[in-house]
Amino acid sequence: MMKQESVVDRFLRYISIDTCSDDHSESQPSTQKQWNLLRLLEQELKALNVPEVSLDEFGYLMASIPSNGPQTPGLGFIAHVDTSPDMSGENIKPQIIENYDGKDIVLNKEKQIILSPEDFPELLWYKGQTLITTDGTTLLGADDKAGIAEIMTAVAYIMEHPEMKHGPVRIGFTPDEEIGKGVWHFDVKKFDCPYAYTIDGGALGELEFENFNAASTKLSIQGQNVHPGYAKNKMINALQIGMEFNQLLPSVQRPEHTEGYEGYYHMIRTEGTVENAVFEYIIRDHNRDRFEKKKLFFQECVDFMNKKYGKEIIRLEIKDQYYNMREQIIPHYHLIEKAMEAMAMAGVTPKISPIRGGTDGAQLSFMNLPCPNLFAGGHNFHGKFEFIPIESMHKATEVILNIIRLYTSQTLKN
To answer: 362-380, pLDDT tens digit by residue?
Structure first.
């Protein structure tokens, strides 16, 4: 059997592989480079002697560890290989900060990029611990390569410790979660288990079974370009139209002004000229009724602009992406209770909170695979200030193993 490798070693190896997804791509995976990590993980699972490993044409890597005794339903653990297109994931240069002293961390001296507890007070939770940070020029990739590393480390432990009794354990690694396409072709029947957990959360102790209802929107704006010297009463500037539209949306309902259960409108991309412009938004809300009202208001703003200018200068495309998984999890609340117990066994205080985002688990829960979300340990995902405490990664691995033990021990008692 292979010698147990640390979760940190795995994590550092995985983040060295650029796996950024592309929300404008029509393929799945959306980028070819995601295959590089998927194939590496496939090789590693086989090297660990996991008996059932498969990688399909859509980039879904699944593995199964058969029961070594207890007759219990399968239990799955899922993470995604892609990183956010919001910032580069190429040539990541992680920095390891040992015995963090609670002061500013200089990520990049040349560019004066500083990770400060003044801006990110949660840093102070981890005084005395070892942090992994970026060098200020890329994201880190803890979302979700920390989850992958923790699952893989738990798999290695199970394979190297046959004395640990367990039921069937299923592993799933998915592409394109960051662009909302992570489980579009996920074969739930092939995965073959009634319950699973995504390891895709943030800070130590996070346990989530509520997420945003989500929609993406695209405004295609048709302007009318005329030489600016002769433009009076003739020019329609598509860029200005987009800016005017944005002013119709309530400024207090932007991500930078919301928290908890508060939803938002978020402009994520714009490009264009006077003649043509595209503005893209995402719409989010935990409450389904408020979510539908937000979409309706968005449409009403488009209608108002078109009426004002007397023609269809804005064409709207709107697509629902995923829904709040709460209604699918509550009937299976034992998943939450077991996760809380597993955390307590590891000395971790559970922090149940709504996800201000989404996970593959949200869509899977509506595909008859109830799938709450567990912490992976990272902070400040999708940007240069991302960091993760090593101790949190160890705890996440421990919690995964504890969940397996709890479901197994209950079966043995029964």
So the answer is: 999 999 999 999 999 999 9
